[in-house]
Amino acid sequence: MATTTLPTPVRNFRINTRFTKGAFDDVNQLTLDVEDALENHLVFTKPPVLLTDLETQRLSYQATNTESRKGGVDRTRANAAAKQVLTDSLMQIALYCQGLGRHDLNLLLSSGFEVNSTNRTSGPLDTPSIKDILNNVSGQLTVRGIGVLNGRMYKVRSSTDGGKTWTEWPLFNGARLMVLSPTVPGTTYMAEVCAMGGTTLQSPWSNPVSMMAM
User: Fold this and answer.
1) d(C-alpha 124, C-alpha 82), whole Å
2) pLDDT in the model for residue 177
3) pLDDT, tens digit, for every residue of 75-97?
4) Which of 20, 31, 83, 156 is the most exposed place for a label (fewest CB within 10 A)?
């Protein structure tokens, strides 16, 4: 009796659009990542929003956010309006990239956005990585990570004694921008990140990256 070979299911991937409800730092950093990723991209050559316009909207959002910290209803409304304009543009670009790369995880990740899978089959998570650590604000370090497929939350641990002992920080919603505060100026922190979820509940820890706090 002849056997029937079922075709391998085509995997679909979806850009994570939680950025529409993100805080200022998250939206601002995502925009920078997308601008950098799509500059001279070989596949995503015609985004629906020009990168120059996206940059202008990001700078406007930065300006209104600074003003909103002074208080006042008008400043708050202006900041909310600028954020809406920027996240609307990011959404248009995300849908464009998803349309072209929904079956290719590596291609979709190259857009600068975080990605989820529509495949309901659960498995162990891949290992996230740390792109770099910023120390441009006194008393804090900003870990810029690269997330993994289906990573829901991310955990950072740091060591000031070369990895002999570790301190775990509160969970973060994304890997792109994880702020460690307070930190001790003049102290070198070695940091690692892992993703939470999957069948093992937690991914392996990433590569360690060190930075001295200011």
Assistant:
1) 39
2) 83
3) 999 999 999 999 999 999 999 99
4) 20
- Provide mean pLDDT across the span 138-161: 92
pTM of the model: 0.71
**CA–CA separation, 142 vs 158, rounded Å?**
12
Query: End of a domain among 54, 82, 117?
Result: 117
Q: Tell me, what amino acid is at 195?
A: A
Domain boundary among 91, 117, 143: 117
- DSSP result, 1-58: -PPPPPPPPPP-EEE--GGGG--HHHHHHHHHHHHHHHTT-SS----SS-HHHHHHHH
| CA 70 from centre of chain | 28
Indicate the number of domains in the chain: 2
Which DSSP state fits 172?
A: B
Mean pLDDT across 163-189: 94
Are 116 and 147 in contact, with CB atoms under 8 Å apart? no
- Written as one letter, the residue type at 58 is R
Can you tell me which residue has the tokens 């979820």?
197
What percent of the chain stands above pLDDT 70?
93
Range of the domain at 144: 129-212
4 within some domain = no
Which token pair is 147?
A: 């997330």
* Token output for 50: 């020009």
Contact assessment for residue 76 and residue 68, using Cβ atoms and an 8 Å cutoff = yes
Give dist(CA 91, CA 110) in Å, integer.
16
> In terms of C-beta density within 10 A (0-12 exposed, 13-18 middle, 19 or more buried), how is residue 59 classed?
middle
